[in-house]
Design goal:
single chain; about 290 residues; mainly beta; eleven-stranded parallel sheet; ten-stranded parallel sheet; elongated
Length: about 290
């Protein structure tokens, strides 16, 4: 018999950067076999609560997400690539409740920047999953950061890999906004960061912002991060929270560094670093079941 063609899913937009056609209607690109040719085209039409699904291949573009509540997802994990033109940030997220999932992201400048366009505003509930962030072919490093979040609350960076960032691998920056901490409570977990020029993971409560609280840095593997003895694997700076179950190897300086209480520091393994753990005497963390090896 003849099978009817299923109707499009109007909560989804499909993108195929190799074979997509931009003359298709919004109704048509709700089916997997019809697609627009760029993520930028899809972002111009997407609405809160909708999902952009990107088929395998390379999208040569830098994207900017300004609509809240949008999910941008690779159809197959790490088989869709966002490759930024030279000297551009590959992905900018400027809205709340955005999910970015499953992409390879390449740039010679920076991979992902999560920050409101207005520097006096915060973002909420942005989630980054299963990303591979690395330099463009022919570039030894990203010139700045792999993944950077500025003034966010309840952000998640989970199961990502960052390679060879010239500055920080994963940076959560919190600045002062109206005499308050402009961000707080991030979850940075299950990530692999290697070859960063400064810190592998840095929760940075930028002075003189009030202390940023509630961060969880857990189950990460950090290898060969830092280029001086004052840098290294993992740092909480003017920030509190929990550091647990991380493996830190071959840092240039410190394996783990904290300077503010209260911090729970437990079940971490640091080896091959210049100094395994560095803390302030006046703000010692609650510390148990950590290991350090030469």
């Amino acid at each position: 018999g003849v099978f009817p063609v299923p109707p499009p899913d109007l909560t989804r937009i499909y993108v195929d950067c190799a074979t997509g056609k931009d003359d298709l209607s919004r109704w048509e690109v709700g089916r997997p076999w019809d697609a627009w040719s760029s993520i930028t085209r899809a972002l111009a039409s997407v609405q809160d609560g909708e999902t952009i699904i990107v088929h395998d291949g390379t999208c040569t573009e830098a994207i900017e997400v300004e609509v809240p509540g949008v999910t941008i997802q690779a159809a197959s994990a790490r088989l869709a690539t966002i490759e930024a033109p030279s000297n551009q940030i590959a992905v900018r997220v400027e809205a709340d409740e955005v999910v970015l999932d499953g992409f390879v992201i390449r740039s010679d400048r920076a991979g992902v920047l999560v920050a409101a366009e207005d520097t006096e505003m915060s973002l909420f509930d942005v989630r980054l999953y299963n990303l591979l962030v690395e330099p463009l072919a022919g570039s030894p490093t990203l010139s700045t950061n792999g993944i950077r979040l500025r003034n966010t609350f309840d952000s998640i960076v989970d199961s990502c890999e960052v390679r060879n960032a010239g500055q920080g691998g994963i940076v959560v920056l919190v600045q002062e906004i109206n005499d308050l901490a402009g961000g707080g409570r991030s979850f940075v977990r299950n990530n692999l960061v290697r070859g960063s020029g400064e810190w592998g993971i840095h929760i940075d409560g930028e002075w003189p912002a009030p202390t940023t609280a509630g961060h969880v840095v857990a189950f990460n593997t950090l290898h060969a991060n830092g280029t001086t003895t004052g840098q290294g694997g993992l740092r909480l700076q003017n920030a509190t929270g929990e550091i647990r179950d991380n493996i830190v190897h071959a840092s240039s300086g410190f394996g783990v560094k904290t300077d503010t209480a209260p911090v729970l520091l437990h079940h971490n393994l640091v080896f091959g670093s210049n100094k395994a753990y560095d803390t302030e005497e006046s703000a010692e963390p609650l510390y148990w079941n950590n290991l350090a090896r030469d």
